[in-house]
Specification:
alpha+beta; four-stranded antiparallel β-sheet; three-stranded mixed β-sheet; 11 strands; binds flavin-adenine dinucleotide
């Protein structure tokens, strides 16, 4: 286990500065344009691929940083640049993690390279779990996967929604029901390869924020995929379903399941994105407050403004510490006995919403216009309390964990 320290090591500082440079020189200058266009910023993703930021190798390196800080540090810097563009760069990672977590070595080797493409021909991937009637309540998912034994194929039918990169992805990872009797334990994940007939994009959403990130419905109409596209394989699925049926017969599982532990480990990354956006808005506000003069002095000379900045910075630092703690716990295999991952996501996302609103207030009329970036940052920040589990769901998870009752 790495020794505890509050300081980044030299290697981490080097990576952080390199990412910050990319965020400042490439992402931030493009932010307003892609927000207005509401389109995937392919040229920026391509730039990221050229320098090695858009690749599985990069994320794997950060993930295996023994302190656990590699991923949160990377997320904070990229999202400091711009949340919409950064999500376009890291969104493929959601699908890649789905394959890494559940796939066989062969599936990982086959599909992950096709998710990213290469610097000359970048591709993106989508992770499709949410449905119109299954958001927070994942167990009520309806998309069905039925096995056609004669052809060794799975047939997928249903409608997915809110899929980041949905419909424009080269590879879609789709979660579907294989045994409706088992609730969320009867779900399995499937690869839908490029060009598979029956998969189409539904509505593309026009959003409040993170508008450079593509979000859409994905329609699955008799989509047939080979048996080899079931992540983990049929044998493992059959064993898992048999265990779940046996537990259901014994009166249900009373312990926190493995999926919950996975969420606890991944939520700090979303918290880190929120810290990046909050820090960006705070920096703009601090700079403005020290240069804008009213009543013959910089507005920061008024306690009403200065104290807001003090609170903003304090909350951001507290959020980062919660994120770092949870990330350190995850890499060191510490049990999340107080749902520390959810805590970090809850506090950081609420902080981003509040701090970006305070930044608008400090910039006055300018803050309310698109001439300055804080109104965009405020629109972007609203996503953090919604996706990857809403703030209410984080509170529910924390409270039930503390009370020692099952999450569901
Ligand atoms: C921009 C964007 C990108 C996304 N990307 C993806 C993606 O790539 N893949 C994917 O699968 N999904 C994605 N999502 C979906 C996202 O995870 C869901 O929107 C989220 O889980 C909430 O589900 P919902 O929108 O159906 O809200 P609902 O679950 O309907 O919730 C509505 C409100 O009710 C509250 N609520 C619900 N249940 C409870 C409860 N038990 N107690 C208290 N309050 C409750 C919620 O907190 C919320 O305030 C994305 C969403 C957005 C907006």
């Amino acid at each position: 286990m790495a020794e505890f320290t509050m300081e980044l090591n030299d290697e981490q500082k080097e990576v952080r500065d390199w990412l910050h440079g990319f965020a400042a020189d490439v992402i931030r200058p493009a932010a307003a344009e892609w927000d207005e266009r509401e389109e995937t910023p392919w040229p920026v993703i391509q730039e990221a691929a050229k320098v090695g930021i858009y690749s599985l190798d990069f994320y794997a390196q950060q993930y295996f940083d023994p302190t656990g800080l590699g991923i949160p540090m990377a997320m904070e810097e990229l999202f400091w640049g711009d949340a919409g563009i950064a999500l376009s760069i890291v969104g493929t990672g959601l699908a890649a993690v789905g394959v890494l977590a559940n796939g066989t070595e062969e599936q990982i080797g086959t599909w992950i390279p096709q998710m990213y493409g290469d610097a000359n021909d970048v591709k993106v991937a989508a992770f499709c779990s949410s449905e119109p009637d299954a958001g927070s309540d994942v167990a009520s998912m309806r998309t069905r996967a039925v096995y056609d034994e004669a052809k060794d194929e799975w047939v997928l039918n249903g409608t997915k929604t809110w899929a980041t990169n949905g419909g424009i992805a080269n590879v879609h990872v789709v979660v579907a029901v294989v045994d409706p009797e088992l609730g969320s334990k009867g779900h399995a994940s499937f690869i839908v390869p490029p060009g598979t007939p029956g998969l189409s994009q539904g509505q593309k959403f026009k959003k409040h924020g993170i508008r450079a990130s593509h979000t859409a419905e994905v329609i699955l109409d008799n989509v047939r995929v080979p048996g080899s596209c079931l992540l983990g394989g049929k044998e493992k699925l059959d064993e898992r379903l048999a265990r779940a049926r046996e537990k259901a017969r014994q009166g249900g599982e009373r312990v926190k399941n493995a999926a919950m532990a996975t969420f606890e480990a991944s939520r700090p990354a979303v918290g880190a994105m929120a810290v990046g956006t909050a820090r960006a808005a705070y920096e703009v506000a601090l700079d403005y407050a020290t240069t804008r003069e009213q009543f013959g002095r910089p507005i920061v000379d008024n306690q009403g403004v200065a104290f807001q900045l003090a609170d903003m910075r304090t909350s951001i630092d507290a959020a980062r510490l919660l994120v770092w703690r949870a990330s350190w716990m995850a890499i060191n295999g510490k049990p999340f006995t107080a749902a520390e991952g959810s805590m970090s996501k809850l506090f950081a996302s609420e902080t981003a919403k509040k701090v970006t609103a305070q930044a608008i207030q400090i910039l006055g009329g300018n803050g309310y216009t698109r001439e300055y970036p804080v109104e965009r940052m405020h629109r972007d920040a609203a996503i953090y309390t919604i996706f990857e589990g809403t703030s209410e769901i984080q509170r529910l998870v924390i409270a039930r964990t503390l009370a020692g009752v099952p999450i569901r």
